[in-house]
Amino acid sequence: MNIAEISKRISAIKAEDLIGENEMVKAAVLIPLILREGHWHILFEERSRQLRSQPGDICFPGGKMEATDRSPREAAIRETCEELGIRPEDLFVVGTLGRYLPSSQLIVHPYVACLQTETFTPSAEVETLFTVPLDWLLKTEPERYAVKLQPLPEDGFPFEKIVGGKAYQWRERQIIELFYHYRDHTIWGLTARILHHFLKILRA
Predict the structure, then answer these.
(1) What pLDDT is recorded for position 18?
(2) How far lies 92's CA from each of 38, 116, 191, in Å?
(3) H helix or E strand, kind and range, residue 174
(4) Of 120, 116, 100, residue with least CA distance to 108
(5) Number of Cβ atoms within 10 Å of the Cβ of 129
(6) Which residues fall within 8 angstroms of residue 124, CB to CB, at 6 or more apart?
(7) CB 26 within 8 A of CB 103
(8) What are 110-166's pLDDT values in tens digits?
């Protein structure tokens, strides 16, 4: 391969391209806004207690992109309609919040939409639905707690191939978990971090 061919391939890359994106799981979520008596509310789901993954957690409608989804936006709309039992014409997508990387294996595309109905037929994945006033959220600061992440190499890790061997000084990392408490509901994890980003945009 000559430098001309290398240059041609490199020039096709955009600065915003993400290394490893093709191998990452892609998901899309939607922040549903509902207008009630002149005030905006955000609709949340409580996941079914029968689910094997994150039962009972609070989340936005959404999920993994399917091969039939032409875009993350389409995936967010499809998942929302399936989980709430509504039609695509029952919502209006305001826009995107960009891309969120909660881990090196997952990329999430959050969207914001206005719901034009409150007649829902939730799927079996949904335990309950509830709303939180946007004004309350804008005035509320979440609780913050650090979670330390300690690297733990698997059995057979080739310590002999790295400087320091088994004495290698792994860097301890941490993430900050956010908690919003509204009545008897606790919003945390990925949902709270996306919500917090959305609220920061509105305050700005």
Answers:
(1) 86
(2) 18, 8, 21
(3) strand 173-182
(4) 100
(5) 16
(6) 48, 50
(7) no
(8) 999 999 999 999 999 999 999 999 999 999 999 999 999 989 999 999 999 999 999
For residue 197, the surrounding DSSP H or E stretch is: helix 189-203
Residue with tokens 């029968």: 50
- Letter for the amino acid at 198? F
**DSSP-derived secondary structure for 40-89:** EEEEEEEEPTT-SSSTT-EE-SEEEPPTT-SSHHHHHHHHHHHHHT--GG
Any idea what the Cα angle at residue 137 is, between residues 135 and 138, rounded to 5°? 65
Residue in this structure with the two tokens 């913050």, named with its chain if needed: 144
- Give the span between the Cα atoms of 126 and 55, in whole angstroms: 10
Residue corresponding to tokens 């006033």: 133
**Closest by Cα among 133, 130, 138 to 37:** 133
Tokens 């998942």, residue located:
79
User: Letter for the amino acid at 129?
Assistant: L
Secondary structure class of 11 (helix, strand, coil): helix
CB 18 within 8 A of CB 107: yes
**Bridge partner list, 147:** 175
The answer, yes or no, to whether residue 198 has pLDDT greater than 90, is yes
